[in-house]
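Key idea: predict the complex, not the pieces.
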Amino acid sequence: MIAEVRGLSFSYGDRAVLSDVSFTLEEGTVLGVVGPNGCGKTTLIKCLDRILEPRGTVKIRGRGIADYHGNELARTVAYVPQALSIGMAMTVLEVVLMGRTPHVRWSVSDDDLSLVTETISRLGIGHLAFRKLTQVSGGERQKVMIARALVQNPSLLLLDEPTSALDVRHQLEVMALIRSVVDERNIGALAAIHDLNLAARFCDSVIVLHEGTVRAAGEPNQLLTPALIREVYGIRALVGREEGLPFILPVEPVGSETP
Amino acid sequence: MKDTERELAAGQLQNESVTRTYRAIISRRVLAIAVLAAAIILLAAVAVTLGSADLTVSEVYIAIFSRFFPGSLSTDPLTSTIVWDFRLHRVIFAVLAGFGLAVAGAMMQGVLRNPLASPFTLGIASAATFGAAIAIVFLPPLFDGDLVLVACAFSASLLATAAIYGLSRYRGMSAESMVLAGIILMYLFGAITSFLQYTGSTEQLQAVVFWMFGSLQQTSWLKCGIVGIVLGISVPYVILKAWDFNALTMGDQVARSLGVRVERTRTIHMFIASLITASIICFTGTIGFIGLVSPHITRLALGGDHRYLLVASGLIGALILLLADSLARTILAPTIIPVGIMTAFIGIPFFLYLFLRRKEEYW
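Result:
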């Protein structure tokens, strides 16, 4: 088991954001976290990477995250944030190399460099290696960020809305990439996803967060029903099935305001 | 099958070429650092021969080497005094001060992720001026001026550092809060200094204004030693931590996920940068500009990897200050122009050249 979360709660001051969240994440699986804006998806991800310190139990590879010292957690968990504030225009290669920060001492070894070059060519961005990060498209930049996380050699990959700024083709490409990397390396990924169709297509299981608690969890096939979507998002949606996968068509908001 | 093989081979070739290009870029950076260091040594060698006393190049070098080989070379005491007690420590101090101010600027810009951060814009230099003004206006009748002034300027700079730390702690040590706290202090200390100037006598006003120009007139071997020790201890540590600076450019959260202890790192490096700055400007007055612009020149020329950026910025700063001081001593000789005025004249064309030539974003 890669991650085990039991009774996780977190508050910003008096405002409770997450309460009593529990789930597990196995090797070779992608876990989708869905739910409306403000339901706590990003907070949950930050709690798993110790960027925030929650109450409850978070174990990665059987060890509580508080027991990871120094760079150990950074060698085990990698995080791709949602919106990236890019300070300086570094090259794609330099940004991806930063993923080796928890592993390198000072100089970059041949092994570091070959891992980085293999990863970027595997992600199809090898030709951009010496391009400035500010000069690549949104889809390419997201791949750069994923490459940076992958060269950390993590067991757990945390992705905060990895497809939110991308067009449909790039959404599929990025999700397929995450899927295949998880399968190849037998690691786990947890992705906060807005698009229910993408979640249904690429995730092995999904947890639905609603007002900071887990409203439902399970395989997307059984989980994503019109009734649940109505309850969580306050919309009427049609749920169909094509090629063995559910697809969701949002129709209209119901009720006076969003829940 | 053949296609797959071809793709694999092409990928392999691309990987090899990326690796080769990266290694070439790194070699170029190392070479640039070596060239800068050589240029500084060369310029320093020329700078000691410049001055209002009419000494020939050979007289100067005989005076220098006669200290190391007292038996074989002889020089007259006056030449020896001019070279050893006036010129040599001034040249060395210019190199150390330029290096230190530029490294401090690069550190501040790095940990605060802000291109406008420098010892000047964050109130450290204004605080030193405030300390100096206090010494000039209130203390001269009591003590020997120089030492008191140095002590006041130094303590005021560290006071400003403590105040920036105290203010930003309330906001979780974020980069923005540190920058804001620094700018507020810059205005506060600026206003108090102006008030002291307004109420002081003409001589006091003149002394404060002269201090604000920045000057290398008051250097000594002891001061070289003090700055040398501060730099000798802090700079190797900072360079060892270069990966942390790189990670911080990606934002606090990514840096934290890469294993950097963000608040602690930011606090330590801000303190070190302030200490370096304070230990220099308490002796020289405010030499601005170098701390702000040297890192930008370096970033434009060599890129943003702090493993090379920190040292190279320092060398660029040393070069600018040494060149500025050499010109300041010679162009209107025997009048010496305050070096703080010359640094901008020297550095700005250099910066503008790179800034206008390089079209792509570099920050």
